[in-house]
Amino acid sequence: MNRRQMLAVSAALPASLASPLASPAIAQTFDRPFRLVVPFAPGGTSDILGRILAPELTRLLGQNVVVENRSGAAGNLGAQLVAQSNPDGQAILLIDTGVLATAPSLYTRLPFDPSKDLAPVNLLIYAPYILAVHPSVPARNAAELVAYAKANPNRINVANSGVGAANHLTSLMLAGHWGAEVTQVPYRGGAAALSAVTGGEAQLIVNGATATAPFVKDGRLRGIAVSGPRRFADLPDLPTFTELGWPAGDSGTWQGALVQGATPAPIIARLDQAFRAALAVPDVARRMAELGAEVRAIGPAEFRTWLATETETWGQVVRANNVRLD
Description:
- Pfam families: TctC.
- With about 325 residues, this protein is an alpha/beta fold.
- About 40% of the residues lie in helices and about 20% in strands.
- Strands 1, 2, 3, 4, 5, 6, 7, 8, 9 and 10 form a ten-stranded mixed β-sheet that branches.
């Protein structure tokens, strides 16, 4: 099974998963509230997703699910917190999986091993990247942007959510393909990067559509192109990277849930079912669609295989661009 086949999972989940009473596994109780750890500041894709899912997970699991923002170290601080938590499933990491896929190549030593100290629960959603610029940039389409970037070396500051983040690596690949010199500026998460571009501190961003589309729609940013297999429904005039002949056509933000690596399989299965059921709730599915996200609910085993493939793929990009953090 190739990567695209494995991820071609329909958002239309079985009806039995839509009810908290349908599965005995979900009906079993936990003994205290859950911490849904988002390793970035409020306002980014992971945070938005967590706050949409938390009320439904609370209903399904029978305990409060509280979003806890633990930003720092490009997402690794929150990941480490969960990796070193009790193996009881009550601390859940909700993260852009690109952080876990790139970290082993970016750091000589990590305080945790993503492949051993974190156990996949479910790959939840995929949202394409939007490449957008500040309205002051004199480019209204892809061709004009490339021409401007090539004619003005290092005049474009590219905001990213941290050195080695998937959107940072994607923008490196794009600039290399364009033959343009740009200045990469790391921020503490996607929300801070968005704020920098909307405020004119930086001029370009490649970021998840879930968080970025509202700024394009209201004119605070000018959309140029999108990643993913098709055009973004709410911004149909923006061509895809693939249409433009650009690399990283399947890049984007892949949001997943993980728990401490030694968490027992039955607990992981219960959490997997709860996330699937939450994503199948009609209002949640509607909000996901409005934000440009596609449900990609695959179980723990498939998620682990997918993450191993992504780690190798992004590792090659990191090494090719000589990106290091220590």
